[in-house]
Amino acid sequence: MKELTRTVKSPGDLGTEVVGVPDDATIELDLRLESVMEGVLVTGTARAPLKGECVRCLEPLEQECVADFQELFSYPDADDRSRPSAESGDDAEEEETFSIEGDHFDLEPVLRDAVVLSLPLQPVCRDDCPGLCATCGARLADDPEHDHEDAVDIRWAALEGLAETMKDGEKDTPRDAGDDSQEK
Question: What is the pLDDT of residues 88-141, one digit of tens each?
Fold first, then answer.
């Protein structure tokens, strides 16, 4: 077994549209390499800075991502009989296998999967972020007393006008039963 600590440059494109690791950032890796029968078992933790924006108020945010991972890197001449295999015609998904090339292994795909999967789905600047006003878009954290008059749906505006005339004392005048000239 061997324990290593490394600082590497971000491979780029580690993130989503809302939050991610900047391309110029450095990622700190704490690794434990263990020799096993099939290859080298790599267990590690990655710490990386995150930049993005709050999904509620759209303010910029900076956080830290901590991602744990574990992967087996197989020796190139490992006996395939020692690995469990699915029978042909079986609907089991085939696992992706990683291998050691010389004395090196490529940790980037494992690191990418671990970091991207550990990202928050909806990052917020703080847990109780109130977000933006649905009417005018004002940031509610800046003005907690922010309020608007109740807006009337445009589809009901004509009825509101009728209600106003009823309040003013105007009433509909009854028509004669036979007179339908006003309907035309």
Answer: 444 445 567 888 887 788 999 999 999 999 999 999 999 999 998 888 888 888
In order of 59, 122, 144, 148, 157, the CA distances from 132 in angstroms are 10, 15, 11, 13, 26
Specify which residues 44 forms β-bridges with.
31, 69
CA distances from 83 to 37, 39, 101, 109 (A): 11, 12, 19, 22
Taking only the tens place, the pLDDT of each residue in 24-70 is 999 999 999 999 998 999 999 999 999 999 999 999 999 999 999 99
The DSSP code sequence of 9-65 is E--S-EE-SSEEE-TT-EEEEEEEEEE-SSEEEEEEEEEEEEEEE-TTT--EEEEEE
Residue 163 CA to residue 79 CA, distance in Å, equals 85
For the chain, the domains span 1-83+92-116, 129-165
- Token look-up 């922010």 returns 146
